[in-house]
Amino acid sequence: MATVTRKEYPLSMRLPEADVAMIDRAAALRGRSRTDFVRDAAVRAAEDVVMEAGLIRMSPEGFADFMETLSGPAATVPEMVELAKRPAPWEPGYAAKR
């Protein structure tokens, strides 16, 4: 049987007690360990930053088509109109509209 070599790198940090308490509370609410919760949150945040920094490349023709689409009239999406009319969860009447 072949063995699989896992490469894991320790990461340590010092946090104020209040931050650790908040992380522990959130991890418990998700049913996760502190390590799993922090790892997932850090990777998600890193992915967001990388995606924001990425360039979108397109041909001049593709860009012209994109701008034409943006400049054209907006199409009404009935489901979005209905959703916008619903009260928010913190507004009176929310439970009655559900």
From TrEMBL:
A Pfam family matched in the record: TacA1
**InterPro entries, per this entry?**
Ribbon_hlx_hlx, TacA_1-like
Q: Which domain of life is it from?
A: Bacteria
Annotated keywords: DNA-binding, Repressor, Toxin-antitoxin system, Transcription, Transcription regulation
Q: Does the keyword Transcription regulation apply?
A: yes
Q: Does the keyword Glycoprotein apply?
A: no
Matching entries from PANTHER family are given as: COPG FAMILY HELIX-TURN-HELIX PROTEIN-RELATED-RELATED (PTHR35401), CYTOPLASMIC PROTEIN (PTHR35401:SF1)
Which family does the record assign?
A: Belongs to the TacA antitoxin family.
Q: What is this protein called?
A: DUF1778 domain-containing protein
What is the organism of origin for this protein?
Aureimonas populi
